[in-house]
């Protein structure tokens, strides 16, 4: 039976993440796309999330530096899942602060998400709200983006990610 290679590489949302320790069972981890699973994978979520902040550039700088240090700590331990989760939190620091830079409320679209579309990304027929640039949040986004790129382009990370995806999909 042929498998869908793209589906095999997707983040598996069907696992019981509340009761799963992916440090003990790293073979169950899938990189997925972008920030997929960033708020699910334990124990990494519990280790990184308390440091994730972006309200001001000073807070964003401190947060991104701490998360990058966790990235380096995971790297020193040979823990690819931890490295990837730290990378995802850095990416999420960029995307969330960028969203608040564009939309003070954090909402991109007008109106509630239709019940049958909850958990999916996209406008789902809703109008996008007007953008108003907040320079403070924009600076927080720039700070996170720079650190995110440093993690994403780390040669060891790139090598481990490629090997991980070849081994586990």
Topology (elements, then pairings):
Layout: H1 5-9, H2 44-48, H3 57-76, H4 80-102, H5 135-152, H6 155-168
Shape: globular
Contiguous runs where pLDDT drops below 50 for at least 5 residues:
1-8
Termini separation comes to 17 Å
User: What share of the residues lie within helices?
Assistant: 40-55%
The radius of gyration computed from the alpha-carbon positions, rounded to a whole number of angstroms, is 17 Å
Summed over residues and divided by their number, the pLDDT gives a mean of 85
Strand content: under 5%
Structural commentary:
The chain has 169 residues and is mainly α. The chain has a domain at 47-107 and 129-169. Helix content is 50%, strand content 0%. The chain starts with a helix and ends with a helix. The model is unreliable at 1-8 (pLDDT under 50). This is Cytoplasmic protein. Residues 103-134 are annotated as: Disordered. Residues 115-134 have a biased composition (Basic and acidic residues). It holds the Pfam family DUF4385.
